[in-house]
Amino acid sequence: MVLKRNLRLSMIAILIVVTILVTFSGLQAKQAAPGSDPRSGYLKIKDDAGRTIILQHKPYRIVVLSPSFLELLYAMDGKAVGRPSSTAKLDVLSKQGQDIPEVGFVYNINVEKVVALQPDLVIAMQGMHEMLIPVLESNHIPVMALRYKTYSDVFDKITLFGDITGNPKKAAAVLQTIKSKLKLITDKLPAQTIKIAILHATSKSVSLELENSIAGNTAKLLRLQNVAAGSMPVDSGSDMTPYSLEKLAERDPDLIFVVTMGKKDEIEKTMREDVESNPAWSTLRAVRNKKLVFLPSELFLLNPGLQIPESAEYMAKIVYPEVYGGVQ
């Protein structure tokens, strides 16, 4: 009898231990989400520089090195502890009433300031901030280098930032709203299209923008024929091609858009004076018909991000005022 009772007690003890172990491992499995392998951490991604980054936990001290990423982060209910010195996209901070430490200008980031903020994630711009990665990683700081040029980039990054902040449902809703707005615009496009050229003007030079530029992407969405499409870019990965007035005259676009980089008023004044004084310009159909349009930099120089529908609508109003109404 004693032996049976001891055996029964031993079996009960074993069952209790097994139950505890199963429960504990279940908890561990939940904590390791979203990856089924605990070694995958909180989030595993491959950035646009081809690097694999594993975040072991949800990041709470994020430093962004581009104002465009700041907008996306806050749209997904995230917060930053560091940002670039820039006036762009600061409306998202004024709404939050936040004063975020600056870490230098986008093209001249102060890596010491970044490290001093003790971030658990730095979001950098691919093609611009790669030189900072070794220093940050040597300080055990995860870095994502992300591309942000085209509409497709925006869609992908909305989803990614939803994953980073733990708000994938909000990201899906934002993405659906943007795509629905774009569909409303494209559904009204006329069957007949026109030829356009997009000049990129600075105080020193003029180039032609390709289809993978911000304005070029917008024109492609609106099914406009970019006369520079298929041209050789100035270098690998560039969204511009060399410009010459002679080649532009050969292609003779119906409308010419101008995107300015720098002091817009000065660049526009210089360019208009050149158009009026150089007889070669008068051979262009767009110039004769007064179809030389300077685009707002906030929508067409930098990636408009969540304002993609506004960019598309603005260009649509310029090209087809009879359909979309004119620009006010």
What is the domain tally? 2
Give the mean pLDDT: 86
Computed structural class: alpha/beta
Number of strands: 14
| Shape assignment | globular
Strand portion: 15-25%
Which CATH top level class of the largest domain fits? Alpha Beta
Number of helices: 14
Helix content: 40-55%
Q: Report the CATH architecture of the largest domain.
A: 3-Layer(aba) Sandwich
How many angstroms does the end-to-end distance come to? 96 Å
CATH topology of the largest domain: Rossmann fold
Largest sheet: 6 strands, mixed
Give unreliable regions as ranges: 1-7, 14-36
Radius of gyration: 27 Å
Fold and architecture overview:
The protein has helices spanning 2-31, 67-75, 91-96, 111-116, 133-138, 151-165, 168-186, 214-221, 245-251, 264-277, 285-288, 297-300, 308-319, 321-324, and strands at 43-46, 52-55, 62-64, 80-82, 104-105, 108-109, 121-125, 143-146, 195-201, 206-209, 225-226, 240-242, 255-260, 292-295. The chain is of the alpha/beta class. It is globular, with a radius of gyration of 27 Å. Helix content is 44%, strand content 16%. Strands 9, 10, 11, 12, 13 and 14 form a six-stranded mixed β-sheet that branches. The protein folds into two domains: 39-183, Rossmann fold (3-Layer(aba) Sandwich); 188-324, Nitrogenase molybdenum iron protein domain (Rossmann fold, 3-Layer(aba) Sandwich), CATH 3.40.50. Helix 6 (151-165) packs antiparallel against helix 7 (168-186) and helix 8 crosses helix 13.
Tags for this entry?
globular, six-stranded mixed β-sheet, 328 residues, four-stranded parallel β-sheet, disordered N terminus, alpha/beta, Rossmann fold
